From TrEMBL, chain A:
Gene Ontology CC annotation, any one: early endosome
Domain MHD: 191-442
Protein name, per record: AP-4 complex subunit mu-1
Protein family according to the UniProt entry: Belongs to the adaptor complexes medium subunit family.
A GO BP annotation: intracellular protein transport
Record keywords: Endosome, Golgi apparatus, Membrane, Protein transport, Transport
Location (main, coarse): other
Gene3D superfamilies: 3.30.450.60, Mu homology domain, subdomain B
Function: Component of the adaptor protein complex 4 (AP-4). Adaptor protein complexes are vesicle coat components involved both in vesicle formation and cargo selection. They control the vesicular transport of proteins in different trafficking pathways. AP-4 forms a non clathrin-associated coat on vesicles departing the trans-Golgi network (TGN) and may be involved in the targeting of proteins from the trans-Golgi network (TGN) to the endosomal-lysosomal system.
From TrEMBL, chain B:
Record-given protein name: AP complex subunit beta
Membrane-protein topology: Peripheral membrane protein
Subcellular location: Endomembrane system
GO biological process: intracellular protein transport; vesicle-mediated transport
InterPro entries per the UniProt record, alphabetical: AP_beta, AP_complex_bsu_1_2_4, ARM-like, ARM-type_fold, Armadillo, Clathrin/coatomer_adapt-like_N, Clathrin_a/b/g-adaptin_app_Ig, Clathrin_app_Ig-like_sf
Naturally occurring in which organism (per UniProt): Cebus imitator (Panamanian white-faced capuchin)
Chief place of localization: membrane
C-alpha cells in the first residue's frame, strides 16, 4: 500500500506532502529521494529504488516516480505492491490535477494546495486507491481552483494539442490545456467544447541497404470534454473510419465506450465525463497501408570524409530534424544545403540538420563535409578502407505531420447527442497528428 | 503546505472553527487536525465531541469525512471514542460512508489490534464482503487482507469456490483499482482441479485487454499461475498461450518507466514459458531513444528468445548495437553475441566470425569484451575454433581490463601446445605480476603450470619463477595456497599433476544466468509486484517480515488423470537438461581449481554448503525447499542463548541436572538421546540426539560419532519446512575435524521463525546433515512440550 505521496518541484522543493500511514520517517524522505535521484550518474531515472543504509525509518522504502511537466510525482511504499498500479496511478493523478487546477505546473500546484490535498484525500484513503475518475470526484470536491489568468476562448491561433507531448514541445499550449475542466458553479456561461485528437507515434527502423526492418504505429484517440454534466443526457458518437484497406493489430478501449455498433459500423458511443480520457488505443505493426512519410538516401564517401543525404518527405511536415551521431573527434563541418531556412550544426558529437517546414512531395538535399581524425592504430588500417569508422550513425529523424495519420485512420464524424440548455451549440474540434517516436535509418 | 512553518500553536483556535456548516472550511480544519493532532495529543481530545457529532450528520459527505479523519489521527486516547461512531458508519445507508468506514477498520487495527478484535469489527468487515456496492467490497477485501497479513494463521479471507465466484462477479462491476485488488486475491487461491482452474482463467482472460496496465499484469499473474495446473494437451492451453502475447507486447508501447517494469516481468515470463513470446522477437529490438535501462533489459530478453529460427535476425541486430556510441550498451551487446553462440549451437560459427569482425575495429572496449566471450565459446565448443587464436594474440597488448587479461591468459594456457610463442606471451605478463589483480595472478599461475605440463623442457625456469612469485612474494592467501598446491603436485607426482591440472573440464551450461527454478516459480507468483522488478523474493526486501509468506505454484492435479502426459513434469527441473552439462552453481565448484574468473569464494561455510546441497538436490530431487537462498534461514545473532546457563551437552552437566533438579530453571523434561541416523546409512556418521527447552530457548542436543576411517569436516545442518517453523538459529559448529572413532556433542539453538508447512504427523521434522563426504537425510519426531513457554502458553501462535 502507498505510504506517502509527494510532489517535488524540479529543484527538489516539496510542494505537496501527504503521509497516509504514519509509518515513515517524515518529510525528509522527500529530500532523501531528491538527493538519491540527483546523485545518480547519467540522466537515467530508475523507476524503483530502495533506500538502504540511511536512518532506520528509511530502510526498505521503495520510491516510484514519474516526471511530468518538470515536477516529480512520487509515491513511496514499504510493501511488495504493484509498480504498474502505482505508475498508472501517478499518471492518472497528473491528469486529474491538470483537470482540476488547469495545467499542471509548479505555479498552479502551489496556488491550489488546499484543492490538491482535498483531491488526494478522496483519491487515496490509507494508501488504498479509491477512485481516479474526474466525474466521480466531482461529487466530493468543494474547493474551487484558483487560476491566475483569464481565458480567451477564441484565441484560436494558439490552439495546439492538449495531449500530444510532441517532441519539440513548441506548440503553444491551447486555451483548452490551461483551463480547469470543471466549470465553476457560479459561472454558467461557459462554452461547451469537445476536443478530439487522433495522435500517432511512428517507429521505423530501416537497414543500411534500405530494407525496412521494423515499422510500428501506436495511436490513440483522446477526448477532452468541457460539456457540462448534469441532468442532460450527453452522448458522443465517433466514427473512426477505417475501411477495408485499413486495419489495426491491437485495439483497446476505455471502459466507458459502448461497442455495440463498432463491429458493424465502426461507431463508438460514449458518455464522456468532463475532463480528459483516452477513448481508444491501437497499434499497427509491420504492414503500413500508406508509404512511409520520409525517405532518406544517405551516401557516404570516406576518402574525403563527406556525406550527402537526400530527404524526400511525402506529406507536409513540421519541425523536421535529422540527428546523425558522428565519429569521435570530428572537428570541422562544411555544408551545402538546398534551401536557406534550413540549418545544420554540430552538437554533442552529432550533426543536427533542422528543417522547420517541409512541403510535401519535395526533395531536399544536404552535403556535409567533415574532417575525421585518423584513428590511432597501425597505419595499414587507415581511412582508405571502405568500412565506415565506428560511431557514425544511425541517423534518426524527428518530425510532426499535422493532419496526417500513418495508419490512415480518420475520425469521420463526431456527433453529440446533446440537448443544449440555453447555450449555443457545442464546439467540436477534431485534430489528427502523427509524430516520430524513433525513425531510424542505419548507415 | 505551510511553507515549512509550524502552526501547531493555533490548535485551539482552529478547533473552534470545527463546528462550522461550511463544508469547504470543515475540510480544511480536518486537514489541519490530521497534520497536528499528533503533536498536540491533549488538545486533540477537544475535537472528539465534534467528530462524534459529525458522524451523525445528515450529510453523508460529512459523516465519511469525520470517520476518515478520526482514523488518521493516530492518538491512542482518541481511538476509544472512535469505536461507537465507526460501528454506526459500518452499517450506514450510504455506500460512500461504508467504504470509508471499511478502510477505517484497517487504520484502527494498525493502531490497536486488540481493540478491533474485541469490538467485533472484523466480523462486520467480513459481512461487507457481500455488500451490494462494489466499491465497499473492494475496500473491505483490501482491509481484510491487510489485517490477515499480520495474523497469518487466521482465516480472515477465506477463499473457497463460493467466495471466488462472488469475487469473479464483482470483477466485472468494480473500478479498475478494485479489479487489481480482486485479481491479486484470486492469485492466492489454489483451484482444486484443472477444470476449476480453466473456468477461472476463462473469466479472467477478458481483463487482458484492459487499458490499465496494472489490471493487465495482475490478470497475467493469475493466468500464469493457474496455467501450471492445465494439461499442455488441452486446446485451451494453446489458446491461452496465444492470448497472453498481445497484451504483453502492448505494454511495450507505454512510457519508458512502465516499459521497464513490463520488461522485467516479461523476462520472468520468458524464462518460465518461452513459447508465449517466441514469435515476437521484433518488439524487443532496441530503439535508439530508449533509456539505457530499457535497452539493457531488451537485450537480455532478446537472448532468451534467441533460437535457431530467428538467430540470423538477432545477430544482425546485435552487430548493429555493437557499433553504437554508448559504451555500456556496446559491451552488453558484444557479450550478447557470445551468449547467442553458447545458446544456439548452429549459430556459433557465425557468432565467432561476427566477433572477429568486431575485434578488427580495434576499439579497445569492444576487443576486450569480445575476448572475454570468446573464452566462454571455447569452453562450450572445445577444439573447434582454435584457428582464431592468432587473431586474438595480436591484440594482447591493448588489453587493460583484468577480466579480459585473465580470459586471454586462460586461452593461452589452455591451448599452449598450439601457440608457438606461448612461453613468451606468458612471460611478458609475468613481468608486472605484482601489479596485476588477483584474478589475473591466479590465472597466470595456472596457465604457466599448464604450459609447463605441456612443454616441460623449455619452461622449467618460467614455472619456478611464477611459483616463487606466488608463494614467497605474495600476501594473498588464495594465491599462495594455490601456488603451494601446484608446487607440491609437481614435485611429488607430475603424472598426478597432469591429471589434475589438465583434466577435462565440464562443459559450461547453455544459459548461465537463468534464475534458479524454485526462485523463478516463486517470482512467477509475484508477477506485477516489486518482487518481479527486483527479481528477488519479497522476504529479501520487505521490512519487518510482513507478507513474507512463501508462495509457490500450484501442483498439477488433473481431475482427469488420463490427460496427463508423462513429459509434463512439474516445474522444478528444466526439461532436457543434459547430464554432462552441469548447472551454473556446480560450475563454480567443479572448476574452482582451474578457472578463477569469478570473485574468490570466501563466503561463510553455510553459504558454500547451500551451494553444494543445491547441486546434489538437482540430481536427486527430494528436499527441494532446502535449497536456494530463499528458504535459507540466516543465522541470527538474536537467538544464540544456548550458552546462557544451560548445560552444553557435556556428560557432567547432565549429571548435575539429574542430581540437583534445579540446574535448569524451567525443569523441563529432557528425553534421553536416541539414535536418529545410524552409521550404516550415513557412510560412518552416527547421529543421536534429543530436544531440550531451557529458559525460553529451544535447542537440539546432538551427538556426532565418526565411525568411518576418514576424518570428517565441514558439517552443516538444515531443516525442511515443518509445522512449527523450527529452524536452526545458528550454524552447526563443529570446531575441529572429527577424526575416526571420535565423538562430539553439540547443542544447536533452534528458533521458530522458519517457514511453516503442516507435516504428518504434526511433530515430524526432516533434517539434512552435510559433511565433506555427502549429504544425509533423516527424520525425527520432536516432543511438543519444547514449544511451550514456561508460563504455560504456546510459544508460537
Amino acid at each position: 500500500m502507498i505510504s506517502q505521496f509527494f510532489i517535488l518541484s524540479s529543484k527538489g522543493d516539496p510542494l505537496i506532502y501527504k503521509d497516509f500511514r504514519g509509518d515513515s520517517g517524515g518529510r525528509d524522505v522527500a529530500e532523501l529521494f531528491y538527493r538519491k535521484l540527483t546523485g545518480l550518474p547519467g540522466d537515467e531515472s530508475p523507476v524503483v529504488m530502495v533506500t538502504t543504509g540511511g536512518r532506520r525509518h528509511h530502510e526498505g522504502r521503495h520510491f516510484i516516480h514519474i516526471r511530468h511537466s518538470g515536477l516529480y510525482l512520487v509515491v513511496t511504499t514499504s510493501e511488495n505492491v504493484s509498480p504498474f498500479g502505482l505508475l498508472e496511478l501517478l499518471s492518472r493523478l497528473a491528469t486529474l490535477l491538470g483537470d482540476y487546477c488547469g495545467s499542471l505546473g509548479e505555479g498552479t500546484i502551489s496556488r491550489n494546495v488546499a484543492l490538491v490535498y482535498e483531491l488526494l484525500d478522496e483519491v487515496l484513503d490509507y494508501g488504498y486507491v479509491q477512485t481516479t475518475s474526474t466525474e466521480m470526484l466531482r461529487n466530493f470536491i468543494q474547493t474551487e481552483a484558483v487560476v491566475s489568468k483569464p481565458f480567451s476562448l477564441f484565441d484560436l491561433s494558439s490552439v495546439g494539442l492538449f495531449g500530444a507531448e510532441t517532441q519539440q514541445s513548441k506548440v503553444a499550449p491551447s486555451s483548452a490545456a490551461s483551463r480547469p475542466v470543471l466549470s465553476s458553479r457560479s459561472d454558467q456561461s461557459q462554452k461547451n467544447e469537445v476536443f478530439l485528437d487522433v495522435v500517432e507515434r511512428l517507429s521505423v527502423l530501416i537497414a543500411s541497404n534500405g530494407s525496412l526492418l521494423k515499422v510500428d504505429v501506436q495511436g490513440e484517440i483522446r477526448l477532452k470534454s468541457f460539456l457540462p454534466s448534469g441532468s442532460v443526457r450527453r452522448e458522443v458518437s465517433l466514427f473512426p473510419g477505417y475501411g477495408p484497406g485499413i486495419r489495426v493489430d491491437e485495439v483497446s478501449f476505455h471502459s466507458f465506450v459502448n461497442l455495440d455498433e463498432f463491429e458493424s459500423h465502426r461507431i463508438l458511443r460514449l458518455q464522456p465525463p468532463q475532463g480528459e480520457l483516452t477513448v481508444m488505443r491501437y497499434q499497427l505493426s509491420d504492414d503500413l497501408p500508406s508509404p512511409l512519410p520520409f525517405r532518406l538516401f544517405p551516401s557516404v564517401q570516406w576518402d574525403r570524409g563527406s556525406g550527402r543525404s537526400t530527404l524526400e518527405p511525402k506529406p507536409r511536415s513540421l519541425n523536421v530534424r535529422l540527428h546523425l551521431p558522428l565519429p569521435r573527434g570530428v572537428i570541422s563541418l562544411s555544408q551545402e544545403l538546398s534551401s536557406p531556412e534550413q540549418k545544420a550544426e554540430l552538437a554533442e558529437g552529432a550533426l543536427r540538420w533542422d528543417l522547420p517546414r517541409v512541403q510535401g512531395g519535395s526533395q531536399l538535399s544536404g552535403l556535409f563535409q567533415m574532417d575525421v581524425p585518423r584513428p590511432p592504430g597501425p597505419p595499414s588500417h587507415g581511412l582508405s578502407t571502405s568500412a565506415p569508422p565506428l560511431g557514425l550513425g544511425p541517423a534518426s529523424l524527428s518530425f510532426e505531420l499535422p493532419r496526417h495519420t500513418c495508419s490512415g485512420l480518420q475520425v469521420r464524424f463526431l456527433r453529440l447527442a446533446f440537448r443544449p440548455c440555453g447555450n449555443a451549440n457545442p464546439h467540436k474540434w477534431v485534430r489528427h497528428l502523427s509524430h516520430s517516436d524513433a525513425y531510424v535509418i542505419r548507415i | 503546505m505551510t511553507v515549512g512553518k509550524d502552526v501547531s500553536a493555533l490548535f485551539p483556535d482552529v478547533v473552534n472553527c470545527m463546528q462550522t456548516d461550511n463544508l469547504e472550511l470543515k475540510k480544511l480544519v480536518y486537514l489541519y487536525l490530521m497534520n497536528y493532532a499528533k503533536s498536540q495529543p491533549d488538545m486533540a481530545i477537544m475535537a472528539v465531541n465534534t467528530f462524534v457529532k459529525d458522524c451523525e450528520d445528515p450529510n453523508p459527505l460529512i459523516r465519511a469525512l469525520a470517520v476518515r479523519t478520526m482514523g488518521c489521527i493516530r492518538v491512542d486516547k482518541i481511538t476509544e471514542y472512535l469505536c461507537e461512531p465507526l460501528r454506526k458508519c459500518l452499517k450506514d445507508e450510504d455506500p460512500y460512508v461504508r467504504k470509508t468506514a471499511a478502510v477505517c477498520v484497517a487504520k484502527l487495527h494498525d493502531i490497536n489490534a486488540q481493540l478491533v478484535e474485541d469490538q467485533g469489527f472484523l466480523d462486520t468487515l467480513k459481512d461487507l464482503i457481500s455488500d451490494s456496492n462494489p466499491m465497499v467490497v473492494a475496500n473491505a477485501a483490501a482491509a481484510l487482507s491487510e489485517i490477515a497479513e499480520s495474523h497469518p494463521s487466521s482465516n480472515l479471507l477465506d477463499l473457497n469456490p463460493q467466495s471466488i465466484n462472488k469475487l469473479l462477479t464483482a470483477l466485472n462491476e468494480c473500478t479498475e483499482w478494485g479489479q487489481i485488488f480482486i485479481l491479486d486475491c484470486l492469485a492466492n487461491y489454489t483451484p482444486k482441479d484443472d477444470r476449476e482452474a480453466q473456468s477461472i482463467c476463462e473469466r479472467v482472460t477478458p481483463r487482458l485487454s484492459h487499458a490499465n496496465s496494472a489490471v493487465v499484469l495482475s490478470a497475467v499473474k493469475v493466468l500464469m499461475k493457474f496455467m501450471e495446473m492445465l494439461s499442455k494437451d488441452l486446446d485451451y492451453y494453446g489458446t491461452l498461450l496465444k492470448k497472453l502475447a498481445p497484451p504483453l507486447v502492448t505494454l511495450l508501447s507505454a512510457e519508458p518507466e512502465l516499459q521497464y517494469v513490463a520488461l522485467r516481468n516479461i523476462n520472468l515470463i520468458v524464462q518460465k514459458r518461452p513459447e508465449i513470446l517466441k514469435h515476437e522477437m521484433k518488439v524487443f529490438f532496441v530503439k535508439y531513444n530508449d533509456p539505457i535501462y530499457v535497452k539493457l533489459e531488451k537485450l537480455d530478453i532478446m537472448i532468451r528468445l534467441a533460437s535457431q529460427a530467428n538467430i540470423a535476425q538477432v545477430l544482425a541486430e546485435l552487430k548493429e548495437y555493437a557499433t553504437e556510441v554508448d559504451v555500456d550498451f556496446v559491451r552488453k551487446a558484444v557479450r550478447a553475441i557470445g551468449r547467442c553462440a553458447i545458446k544456439v549451437e548452429q549459430s556459433a560459427e557465425r557468432c565467432v566470425s561476427t566477433l572477429l569482425d568486431l575485434i578488427q575495429t580495434k576499439v579497445n572496449y569492444v576487443v576486450q569484451e569480445a575476448i572475454v566471450v570468446i573464452k566462454d565459446i571455447f569452453r562450450k565448443y572445445p577444439n573447434k575454433y582454435e584457428s582464431v587464436i592468432a587473431t586474438l594474440c595480436e591484440n594482447l597488448d591493448s588489453l587493460d581490463e583484468p577480466e579480459a587479461r585473465a580470459a586471454m591468459i586462460w586461452i593461452v594456457g589452455e591451448y599452449a601446445e598450439r601457440i608457438d610463442n606461448a612461453d613468451e606471451l606468458l612471460e611478458s605478463f609475468l613481468e608486472g605480476f605484482h601489479d596485476e589483480s588477483t584474478q589475473v595472478q591466479l590465472q597466470l599461475l595456472t596457465a604457466i603450470v599448464k604450459l609447463f605440463l605441456k612443454k616441460p623442457t623449455e619452461t622449467q625456469e618460467l614455472v619456478q619463477q611464477v611459483l616463487s612469485l606466488a608463494t614467497q612474494d605474495s600476501d594473498n592467501p588464495d594465491l599462495r595456497d594455490r601456488g603451494y598446491i601446484y608446487w607440491r603436485l609437481l614435485s611429488t607426482d607430475p603424472v598426478a599433476a597432469k591429471e589434475v591440472v589438465l583434466a577435462e573440464k565440464p562443459l559450461i551450461s547453455e544459459e548461465t544466468d537463468l534464475i534458479e527454478p524454485t526462485l523463478l516459480d516463486e517470482l512467477i507468483c509475484y508477477i506485477g509486484t516489486l518482487a518481479s522488478v527486483y527479481h528477488k523474493p519479497p522476504s529479501a526486501f520487505v521490512e519487518g517480515g510482513r507478507g513474507v509468506v512463501h508462495k509457490s505454484l500450484p501442483p498439477r492435479t488433473a481431475s482427469n488423470e488420463s490427460t496427463e502426459s508423462p513429459e509434463t513434469a512439474p516445474a522444478g527441473a528444466p526439461p532436457g537438461e543434459q547430464p554432462d552439462v552441469i548447472p551454473a552453481q556446480g560450475d563454480l565448484l567443479g572448476d574452482l581449481l582451474n578457472l578463477d574468473l569469478g570473485p574468490p569464494v570466501s563466503g561463510p561455510p553455510l553459504a558454500t554448503s547451500s551451494v553444494q546441497m543445491g547441486a546434489v538436490d538437482l540430481l536427486g530431487g527430494g528436499l527441494d525447499s532446502l535449497i536456494g537462498g530463499t528458504n535459507f534461514v540466516a543465522p541470527t545473532t538474536a537467538a544464540a542463548p544456548a550458552n546462557l546457563g544451560a548445560p552444553i551437552g557435556s556428560g557432567l552437566s547432565d549429571l548435575f541436572d539429574l542430581t540437583s533438579g534445579v540446574g535448569t530453571l524451567s525443569g523441563s523434561y529432557v528425553a534421553p538421546k536416541a539414535v536418529w541416523l545410524p552409521a550404516m546409512k550415513a557412510k560412518g556418521l552416527e547421529i543421536s540426539g534429543t530436544f531440550t527447552r531451557q529458559v525460553a530457548s529451544i535447542s537440539m542436543d546432538l551427538q556426532l560419532t565418526n565411525k568411518a576411517l576418514q576424518v570428517m569436516t565441514d558439517f552443516a545442518i538444515q531443516f525442511n519446512r515443518n509445522s512449527f517453523g523450527l529452524a536452526p538459529a545458528a550454524p552447526l559448529q563443529v570446531h575441529a575435524p572429527l577424526s575416526p572413532n571420535q565423538t562430539v556433542e553439540i547443542s544447536l539453538p533452534l528458533s521458530t521463525v522458519g517457514s511453516v508447512m503442516k507435516m504428518e504427523p504434526l511433530n515430524n521434522l526432516q533434517v539434512a546433515v552435510k559433511n565433506n563426504i555427502d549429504v544425509f537425510y533423516f527424520r525425527t519426531l520432536y516432543p511438543l512440550h519444547i514449544l511451550f513457554v514456561e508460563d504455560g502458553k504456546m510459544g508460537e501462535s
